[in-house]
Amino acid sequence: MLIVTRSIAIPESELVERFMRADGPGGQHVNRTESAVELRFDVASSPSISDELRERLLARRDRRMTDAGVLVIQARRFRDQARNRDDARDRLIDVIREATVVQKKRVATKPTRASKERRLVGKQKRGNIKSTRSKDWGRE
């Protein structure tokens, strides 16, 4: 059982792990062991998460999400399989926890008169600095 929050727990049966050979340092050892982990979680058909959370997860523009609604996390940071498994699971928990937080809607506001004034004064100063850089400046 993968505990995400107090109200969200994902059973092991919903997680699909595949092990593969990792690239990177390790010498001959890296060519013989399957230490990299690919963790798959089917967001679209999981009964463990609410419909609201499912929609937020599927709506995210995450390159790890397939068209079928499967979240694929690859972990190959460490040299041993157990640490990569833990890393993949921790990253899955992080993705789901981020989706539980509902973003507040941004209220569009107009810039204040003072901020407009500061912007224009800054533009004028910058223009004056740049005008002194002309090729003809300083020659007589």
Quick overview:
The protein has 140 residues and is an alpha+beta fold. The chain has helices at residues 29-32, 51-59, 81-100, 113-131, and strands at residues 2-3, 9-10, 15-20, 36-42, 70-75. It has a single domain (2-100), classed as Double Stranded RNA Binding Domain.
Can you describe what's shown?
With 140 residues, the chain is an alpha+beta fold. The protein has a single domain, classed as Double Stranded RNA Binding Domain (2-Layer Sandwich). It has helices at 29-32, 51-59, 81-100, 113-131, and strands spanning 2-3, 9-10, 15-20, 36-42, 70-75.
Tags for this model:
140 residues, alpha+beta, Double Stranded RNA Binding Domain, 4 helices, 37% helix, flat, Ribosome-associated protein, ribosome binding, Pep_chain_release_fac_I, translation release factor activity, peptidyl-tRNA hydrolase activity
